[in-house]
Amino acid sequence: MRQKFIAGNWKLWGTLDQAKALVSALTPALKSSKNRFLVAPPYTALSAVKELTKGTSLLVGAQDCSNLETGARTGEISVPMLKELGVDVVILGHSERRQFHGETDKLVNEKIKLVLKHGLEVIYCNGETLAEREAGKAAEVVIRQTKEAFAGISEADLKKITIAYEPVWAIGTGKTATPQDANEIHQVIRQTVKELYSKAAADAMIIQYGGSVKPENVKDLMAMPDIDGALVGGASLKADTFLPICLFDQ
After folding, report:
1. Which candidate in 84, 164, 213, 216 could, as Cys together with 208 as Cys, close a disulfide (CB 3.0–4.6 Å)?
2. Residue-number span of the structural domain to which 32 is assigned
């Protein structure tokens, strides 16, 4: 059975004091769970959050990285810099990076390769827009995105990659794909991994769901056979909403 993996993406939120308070509330409550957990604070809080999570099972993630190790890229942060801070995982290909920063599947592929080169894990995001879903192209979109993002990546490297299916129309809108609809796309993604690599690789792949996950719907989502966790946005910003999601099975 695949281990459930719940990740909180804090996006553009969190002063240092807020980050410390939230992590301090999370770590004692999560220590006895068999699930896997991660928080991805803003860059300014990464060092402090990493210090607070030492000796715990809570992983620390970065929300993005540059596709270059060094260079003239004002405002960007490199994988070696993140590694030096103790970051465990980097979130890549998030729809907000695609939408607001023009990131392409090719660029995401470059970033994935660089993160893997430095021994860190990846949460790779994909998902369709509302227009694409209404046009019946949801499966086509995630198949294309997955194939292009995984180009040149070996089956051995898949052990360090988690896929997060995030329908763009459900992110921050309060709308959520039904568990059945979400599971259907997860099956499409898993089949794509099988065709690219092997049945064993597909069976082992952790595929999270992201898109307005909250305490009220998490159990139904996690009950689906191909949904292996969640990438949580707004509900991860407070312990009283994130903990019930993390501990859905208790």
Report:
1. 164
2. 5-246
